[in-house]
Write a structure and sequence with these properties.
Low-confidence stretches: none
Helix content: 10-25%
Distance between the termini: 6 Å
Strand content: 25-35%
Radius of gyration: 17 Å
Mean pLDDT: 89
């Protein structure tokens, strides 16, 4: 249900583990995240979404994010908001993966870089152009022997 990649800096040896996807405890993580949103932890707009759209959902899958300013990676929940598509049947309570085909994007969560404050975007591993070491600023390359499958 989840996978991971390891990136290693050529200059200093620093490693970054990108653990993405969902695990078997996903339903409880999903419920905790919705409660955090409803309490305002992710801002007033996200809180208001669940007040106005009880049928709405949030994408809680862990994703690889890369800063568009400095290239530093991180992994966090996607946190984008969705509404069911008109006529969709059997709407899952805790959606992930292909479940989102039954939903339309309402709002994309804008992640911020921990290092420079720039915007971070979800990146599929096949489309990674640049990964910058958060320690020294060097180039990180994928360690092909470090592939991880979990849960």
């Amino acid at each position: 249900m989840g996978s991971g990649k390891v990136f290693k800096c050529k200059a200093c040896g620093e490693e970054f583990r990108a653990m993405t996807g969902v695990g078997m405890i996903f339903p409880s993580i999903y419920e905790e995240t919705v409660q955090d949103i409803r309490s305002g932890e992710y801002g007033e707009d996200w809180k208001k979404f669940f007040e106005e759209h009880p049928d709405g959902v949030v994408n809680c899958e862990k994703e690889l994010l890369i800063c568009e300013e400095c290239g530093v990676p991180k992994c966090e929940m996607n946190l984008s908001l969705y509404l069911p598509k008109e006529g969709a049947k059997e709407i899952p309570k805790h959606p992930f993966g292909d479940d989102f085909k039954k939903f339309k994007l309402y709002a994309k969560y804008q992640h911020k870089c921990d290092k420079c404050g720039g915007a971070c975007n979800v990146v599929k591993s096949a489309k990674i152009k640049r990964v910058t070491c958060p320690e020294c600023g060097g180039v990180m390359e994928e360690d092909l022997g470090g592939a991880i499958l979990w849960d």
